[in-house]
TrEMBL record:
Enzyme Commission number: 3.5.4.9
A single GO cellular-component term on record: cytosol
Name the UniProt record assigns to this protein: methenyltetrahydrofolate cyclohydrolase
Residue ranges annotated for the Tetrahydrofolate dehydrogenase/cyclohydrolase NAD(P)-binding domain, each copy included: 7-64
Amino acid sequence: MPAPYWFDVGTTAVEIDGKRKLLDDVDFDDVKDIAAAISPVPAGVGPMTIACPMKNTLKAAEAQTSKE
């Protein structure tokens, strides 16, 4: 069976030792030996969840305002 890829999109903000920290939904230590790859948290898929909808919004606006 091929190794799975984890795209960890969930985050939970917690306070640890008086500092705010983002935790992911996947326990890295539990899956690191079986995963082909794991997206990091933070700095993983988050930028794409902003960029893709923005790109689609711009494409929709261009389609509505085009003279074709």
